[in-house]
Amino acid sequence: MAGPFSNVRLGPDVTSTSADAYVGYLADGNISAFSLMHHSGIGGAPKYGVVSQQPIVGNIRDSLSRSSSPRSAPDEAEVGRYRSFLSNGVSVELAATENAGMISYQFPRDSQAHVVVDLTHFLPSSRGFGTGQQYVNGTFSVAVDGQGNPSYTGSATYNNGWNLGPYISAVDSTPQLPVTLLERLQSSHSLFGEQKIRKALFSPFAERNITSRIGVSWISPTKACEFVDEQMPDGSTIKSFADAAKERWNSQVLSKLKAHTDNPKVRELLYSNLYGMHLMPTNRTGENPLWQSSERYYDDIVTFWDTFRCTTPLIQVLQPRAYEEQIRSLIDIWRHDGYMPDGRSSNFNGRTQGGSNADNVLADAYVKGVTGGVDWKDGYQAIVKDAEVTPPNAHPDPFAPESSTAEGRGALPDWLKLGFVSTDYTRSVTRAVEYSVNDFALHQVAKGLGRVDDAAKYLNRSRNWRNQWKPQATARGFSGFLVPRHKNGCFVDHDPLQCYGCY
Questions:
Q1: 113, 115, 108, 118: which is closest to 59 by C-alpha?
Q2: Which residue has the higher pLDDT, 499 or 105?
Q3: Per-residue confidence at 173, pLDDT binned at 50, 70, 90?
Q4: CA distance 63 to 339
Q5: How many CA atoms lie less than 13 Å away from 186 in the CB half-sphere?
């Protein structure tokens, strides 16, 4: 990556029969492509792995067939630079800017060299949970300049993935590939009916060293081309981008903490995790296809139910400006989408795991005195929306079809009426505990804003976790556990060590 919170995360996509490649990379398996869009840190089902290229050597009998290659040596990685070595003899080197990627291919001598551009490529899921991505449709066009150098532009729509959200792919363009183009289309059956498999086969190469520049935009092909021209002008090199990325990461992130230890493992652990926690969310300011706003825009929030208690508060310390921007972005998402996200990707809220934990993020910022340009009046209303309005179940979750897991609090009807979450809802105990924390967060903001009645109301509601407490429940010599309850108020008779999904 070029720097913290960048839009482009360029890397290999690896296929394996034993594991899903949630972030594209796996230590073992075949490399199926190199793509510009990836997540970091998700589970459940992969997301992205789009805007891709794949080098191929030799005769190609069917340019529409899937092409993958084992590695001939381990990948090499450093800040700002990545390199893979394929068993077909091709070495691939990667670097990126905020909105563009550079892929440099070195093909073996005396070989037929090709590059495949595949709009239908994405990170698949083999788990069979119904959350795998699907290619819906796409467009592809090619132009040739006065020197005979072709470039391509295209866009594609995908559906599903980790957060069950549809999205239009980042639109891509690669100017000045010195090759001849062969484009073929073939029908392929999908969940959306007969669709076109759209690929482009660039071949044959006369040169052994080929560099491709690819721009990414959520707005238009024209803007993707502009990113290439602005961020990767003629004469740019992998080394120049790697050097710029190192300088940026060192100055903006890695220099913020000093490791006073001679243990290299501790230093490696510290700085690797410091790097990792700055990969997301994605700063897509100016790249929001849904609405125009004067606020900054952040996407790929994965996920507040994990980060509100750890990395998100640390970002406030290390990156106070970006932190304030992210708080303001959450409120702006509420203004336009109706709810703040617990998780968000591809400009689509989802998923939630228990509560509405953007509430906790805002409350933490409020009690720490984050002001700047934050509109706390709107921020308060955004949290109240989570606490009082049940979200529509527009995209039923196959794991929890009874209520929305895209945003807000799906089990709110029970919470408001019964004071606990019944077994009518999945993960009932988890939801009850998180709703209690969410209501306490709202209490804190209400108190600070002088809303006395609201502060008392939500403090009282924050104690509802006690209604899930069963003193008589025992396990391993201990008594008293949080236990699921039926809607009639009766506790479920079960072993706390075997909760069967209530947590």
A1: 113
A2: 105
A3: very low
A4: 44
A5: 11
> Are the beta carbons of 302 and 280 closer than 8 angstroms?
yes
**% of the chain exceeding 70 in pLDDT:** 88
Residue with tokens 């998923």: 351
Kindly compute the dihedral angle of the four CA atoms of residues 53, 167, 343, 358, in this order, to the nearest 10 degrees: 130
Assigned token pair, 436: 């209690």
Q: Tokens representing 19?
A: 């594991």
Quick one: tokens of 168? 């239009």
d(CA 390, CA 31): 44
- Kindly calculate the radius of gyration of the chain based on its CA atoms and give it in whole angstroms: 25
Structure tokens at 496: 């706390």
Please answer whether residues 44 and 162 qualify as being in contact, where contact means their C-beta atoms are separated by less than 8 angstroms.
yes
Count Cβ atoms within 10 A of the Cβ of residue 65 and give its class: 0-12 exposed, 13-18 middle, 19 or more buried: exposed
CA dist., res. 468 & res. 129, Å (int): 30
What element of type H or E holds 273? helix 264-276
Q: How many Å apart are CA 78 and CA 239, to the nearest integer? A: 12
Would you state the structure tokens that stand for residue 180, as one six-digit string?
Answer: 């001849």
How deeply is 404 buried, as exposed, middle or buried, from its count of CB atoms within 10 A (0-12, 13-18, 19+)? Answer: buried
Distance CA 59, CA 262 (A): 53
Segment 313-342 shows an average pLDDT of: 97
State the residue for tokens 């988890």: 430
Stated pTM of the model: 0.92
Task: Quote the CA–CA distance of 332 and 345 in Å, as a whole number.
Answer: 15
- Three-class secondary structure of residue 440 per DSSP: helix
Tens digits of per-residue pLDDT, 267-287? 999 999 999 999 999 999 999
Of 437, 394, 416, nearest in space to 304 by CA: 437
Averaged pLDDT, 491-502 = 82
Spell out where 169-307 has E strands: 171-174, 181-190, 193-202, 209-217, 282-283, 298-299
Q: Report which DSSP code applies to 491.
A: B
Taking 90 as the threshold, does the pLDDT of residue 210 lie above it? no
Strand partners, 208: none
pLDDT of the residue at 167: 55
Higher-pLDDT residue of 263, 64: 263
pLDDT for 65: 63
In angstroms, rounded to a whole number, what is the distance separating the alpha carbons of residues 402 and 397? Answer: 8
